[in-house]
Amino acid sequence: MTKMKVLEIPHPILREKAKPVEKVDARIVGLLDDMLETMYASNGVGLAANQVGLLERIVVIDCAREGEEPDPLQMVNPKIIAHSEEILCRNEGCLSVPREYADVDRFAVVTVEYLDKNGEKKTRTADGLLGMAIQHELDHLDGILFIDYLSKLKRDKLLHHLEKRRKKEAKEA
Ligand code: NI
After folding, report:
1. Rounded to whole angstroms, how far apart are CA atoms 167 and 148?
2. What's the gap in Å between 119 CA and the centre of ligand 1?
3. d(C-alpha 77, C-alpha 70), whole Å
4. Which residues does 87 contact at the CB level (< 8 Å), separation at least 6?
5. pTM
6. How far out from the chain centre does Cα 158 lie?
């Protein structure tokens, strides 16, 4: 397995729409495994293909807490087919918007349909952190980032903070 480079804003690929995978073949299975390894190595709970420079509808997620057994979810062509009326607000972050966090409204419960590593159709209903992660990662495949849901004022503040920290780190390096 290979650790991939995680792209950060403002990389343009993060703003593009990924294309459906036609066949879950050995190459796709390899990508699913490389992405999972990359996500674990980056201490993330989710990673979408756009974030590693690929415009294919592939997502990996693992919301197991520290000390718990790993619970990897590797999804090809995922699609939300049902969601609750109820909305929940959670604090979100993203490996492509490093070390910045903000509250985002999401559906409390979602049902996602996807193809697994064997190309078999599966569905999963999720709430809590997993439900949020599914919505966040699927957004990536459409070029959407969590900061898009913030008011302009909050987003500008977050981006300004990120830029300031990047400059500081570049100076120290
Ligand atoms: Ni993200």
Report:
1. 23
2. 24
3. 22
4. 105, 106, 107, 108
5. 0.96
6. 19
Q: What are phi and psi of 73, to 5 degrees?
A: -120, 115
Each residue's pLDDT tens digit, 111-160: 999 999 999 999 999 999 999 999 999 999 999 999 999 999 999 999 99
Contact call for residues 156 and 147 (beta carbons, < 8 A): no
Q: Could you confirm whether 137 is annotated as catalytic?
A: yes
- Residue pair 48/14 in contact (Cβ under 8 Å)? The answer is no
DSSP 125: E
Select which of 69, 86, 137, 169 is catalytic: 137
Reply yes or no on domain 12-172 having CATH 3.20.20.140: no
Residue 39 CA, ligand 1 centroid: distance in Å: 11
Cα dihedral across residues 39, 44, 50, 52: positive or negative: negative
- How many angstroms does the Cα of residue 76 sit away from the middle of ligand 1? 17
Distance CA 38, CA 5 (A): 8
Residue 8 has phi, psi (to 5 degrees) of: -120, 160
CA distance 42 to 3: 9
Structure tokens of 33? 């495994």
Domain locations along the chain: 12-172
